[in-house]
Amino acid sequence: MKKLIFRFIIIIISSVFLLITYLSIIGIETDKFNNQIREKIKKIDKNLEIDIKKIKLVFDPFNFEISAKTLGTRLSLQNSIIELESVKSLISLKSIINNEFSISNIDISTKSVEIKKIISFVRGITKNTKLLILQNFIKEGFLIADIKLEFDQKGNIKDNYDLKGFIKDTKINFLKKHKFEKVNFIFYHNQKETNLEKIQLSYNRLDLFFEKILIKNDKTDFLINGVLKNKNLSLNNEIIKQLFISDNYEVREANLDSRNIFSFKIDKKFRLKDLVINSKAKINKLVITNNYELKEIFPDAKSEINFNNHNIEINYDKKIFDINGSGNVLLQNSNDKLDYIIRKDKGGIKFDTLIEIKKNPLSINFFNFKKDTNDEAK
After folding, report:
1. Residue from 109, 107, 108, 128 nearest 119 by CA
2. Fewest CB atoms within 10 Å of the CB: 101, 193, 349, 356?
3. Under a CB-based contact definition with an 8 Å cutoff, are residues 194 and 215 in contact?
């Protein structure tokens, strides 16, 4: 009798173990939670429909939870359809045993979706007319995203939602003059802030890389700060014309490494304010035309001025504008050394400059001074 009872207990334990193993690894399929998921989705928008297939339930024996997951789901709003990769939720085992089961969270993963389609979809839900402007600027591109939603006891969406994913191969045009192409970045978004990382883009055929951009929303303004870092950046003629406009010189060539930390605010009327920039750059090569009358001072002055191996630090805010530079300048036959500090504030503009002339001639007629090429002068 004891052996029979012992065998029976072993069979029961083995069966429970096998059942738990089966539910933990393979799981079962059911449509029992479909209506609840539909109701939760309609909490976002009453016209929002979700096409759900059977849900697969997998048991987590360590946390006493059941993971509910469905694949190949579609969200539809009027004539707009978004293909989803999966919809997942965690359900407490205790609530199922007590026949009080309810879904407290939903995780949605999209497939690769056209950005214009997703903006149109969100605009249909939020009724935000500003998204229509954004939709017109974006010409092409794709988005993949994971959305985490939590619900309170009344079934309403909590404010602690999370959205993450990445943007790929996006093209944006602003007023035909500003073209952003090959835009790729990772993003994280919640109610308080938006974090963009590893941003790669081409602006008017100039390749740029941003380490990160953080956007925070307070009551009146958007607070934006970020880091722009580029190595061996060669400026094309179109960008050079936009950045360097002068009647006295023309930039022929520019190549540099730079790291720029910036911050600013944008108010609700899209006005920029409180701009702060800290920029450190190494000019590998900067060639400008020499249209200045310099022959009387520098007898062997060339038609071009070449700055090379040149370090510059720029600090800018609403109170001051500082430029601190040091490096080589090729004005005549060989490199000279140029140092300078330029500071602009409410008191005006101050200059502190030094040029070390090594193997080049120098002539200052009103001092009756001439430097021999073998001498040095400062």
Report:
1. 128
2. 349
3. yes
Q: Tokens for 70, please give them.
A: 């469905």
Residue 70 CB coordination number (10 Å):
22
Task: Give the span between the Cα atoms of 139 and 27, in whole angstroms.
Answer: 43
Question: What is the distance between the alpha carbons of residues 121 and 79, in angstroms, rounded to a whole number?
Answer: 9
Residues in CB range of 371: below 8 A, 6 or more apart:
357, 361, 362, 363, 377
| Sequence-separated (6 or more) residues with CB below 8 Å from residue 122 | 128, 131
Give the closest residue to 230 by CA, choosing from 263, 255, 196. 255
Cα-based distances in Å from 231 to 16, 121, 207, 311: 61, 39, 10, 14
How would you classify the pairing of strands 369-371 and 362-364?
Answer: antiparallel
**Largest distance between two CA atoms of the chain:** 126
Q: Report the alpha-carbon distance of residue 66 to residue 55 in Å, rounded.
A: 12
CA dihedral for 28, 29, 31, 37, sign (positive or negative): positive
Q: Tokens standing for 271?
A: 């006005």
Distance (Å, rounded) from C-alpha 191 to C-alpha 163?
10
Percent of the chain with pLDDT over 90: 15
CA distance 255 to 249: 17
Alpha-carbon gap, residue 342 to 314, rounded angstroms: 10
- Kindly give the interhelix angle for 130-137 and 115-126, rounded to the nearest 10 degrees: 170
Name the nearest CA neighbour of 229 among 206, 211, 255, 205: 211
Tokens of 3: 């052996």
Q: Are strands 65-71 and 272-289 parallel, antiparallel or unpaired?
A: unpaired
